[in-house]
Amino acid sequence: MRRGFSLIELLVVIAIIAVLIALLLPAVQSAREAARRLQCTSNLKQIGLALHNYHSAHDVFPMGISFQPSDNSPTNYAMWNSWGSLALLLPHLEQSSLYDTINFSWGPDSLWTVGVVSPRYNQTCTNTLVSTFICPSDPNAGAGHQNINNYAACYGITGKQLYIYTNNAKAPYYYQIPDDSSGLFTFSKVYGIRNCIDGTSQTIAYAEWLVGDGRGAYLGGVNPPSRYRGNMMTGVASTGADPGTVMSAFDNPQAILANLQNCTDAFATTKIGIVDNKGWRWGIGSTGWSMFNGMQTPNDDKYPIGGCRVNYNVGFYSWPDSSFSVGAASDHPGGCNVLFADGSVRFVKNGIDRNTWWSLATKAGGEVVSADAY
User: Fold this and answer.
1) Coil, strand, or helix at residue 176?
2) Which of 212, 225, 292, 341 would you label with 277, given CA atoms 20 to 30 Å apart?
3) First-to-final CA distance of the chain
4) What span, in angstroms and rounded, lies between the C-alpha atoms of 336 and 207?
5) Model-level pTM?
6) Lowest-pLDDT range, 40-54, 110-124, 292-306?
7) Beta-strand relationship, 335-340 and 204-208
8) What is the pLDDT at residue 360?
9) C-alpha pair distances (Å), 290 with each of 20, 166, 211
């Protein structure tokens, strides 16, 4: 008589295997996330090296947003369609061949029409997926080549647009005058190490963020749109003081927080104005695509939105440029990776004090931040 396994014995063996898998699976997932976080850290370190190589060559860091004609006319200049710092860093990221394809006479997504429909200039370059600009922990980054940028330059805690806008017969239609920011980057102006009065080790240069999920109003055309925390709220009326007049969060924190709350409430209830194209293109320097500010703390649980644009009611299909707030975020448990102006990359925890985060986002605010504060 041959001896084999009884049904009970077989069930016991299967149960033991299932228990072992259940015990091992979290460890495997944790190891995979650790590897993804390490790759994200490496990406930011490469950007940091490129940033300092650029500074060595030019004695300044690159502009946060350059200044090129946007579309239809060579006199229509617009910061919402001009090159960002990541594009200017390409030669220092071993991407010289990609950099050489750029026609800097035009913006990254420009269309110039003279009687006939013309092809978009720089479209091939702008749509190229660069692995250094993708965090492997973000499930939406690079999916379908929709939103292809996880890393953004910091323009401080400036609660205003990065330019003075005018629209009159004496100026081009999109004429925008560059303005300063409290961070390391701004529109059509440059800062260097000399401008980091707070110290390069205490000044944020770049941080990661979550891109939109492609299931909102802009790219997905979904109505009602997804309220995923990587998506942004646009077209919200301001509360209290107009954030467009607030130079710094420290000057009027009540107005900043009131507007963030107003944005959060609208995000939770409205069916229009939620856009899913945060991090759309690394080449475009505008806020929401390759620039952020420090109004929201990393993975802000009090204001859990990707960012907010107030005082410009453009309805369902608005862009995130000139946003009042664009926050840092990640899918890493507990915080997100941040590149500082000295080239170091640190993991900043979600629980960081808001005032401490505001201080790190400024280059010359005069704040003293202890190393153990975050």
Assistant:
1) strand
2) 341
3) 70
4) 8
5) 0.88
6) 110-124
7) antiparallel
8) 97
9) 44, 24, 11
Looking up tokens 């006199």, which residue turns up? 75
Which residues are bridge partners to 131 per DSSP? none
CB 296 within 8 A of CB 70: no
Mean pLDDT score, 157-165: 59
- Beta partners for residue 10, in sequence order: none
More confident residue, 172 or 370: 370
Query: CB-hemisphere CA count at 13 Å for 1?
Result: 3
Per the prediction, the chain carries an average pLDDT of 84
Burial group, residue 233, by CB count within 10 angstroms (0-12, 13-18, 19+): buried
Total residue length of the chain: 374
pLDDT digits (tens, 9 = 90+) for 83-131: 999 999 999 999 999 999 998 888 887 665 544 455 677 888 889 999 9
Strands of the sheet containing 232-236, edge to edge, are 274-275, 232-236, 307-310, 325-326
- Owner of token pair 């695509």: 289
**Neighbouring residues of 271: CB distance < 8 A, sequence distance ≥ 6:** 223, 224, 225
Q: In the chain, how long is the greatest CA-to-CA distance?
A: 103
What is the distance between the alpha carbons of residues 294 and 305, in angstroms, rounded to a whole number? 13
10 Å CB burial of residue 173 (0-12, 13-18, 19+) is middle
Which residue reads 């479209």 in tokens? 123
- Give the dihedral of Cα atoms 185, 259, 252, 79; nearest 10 deg: 30
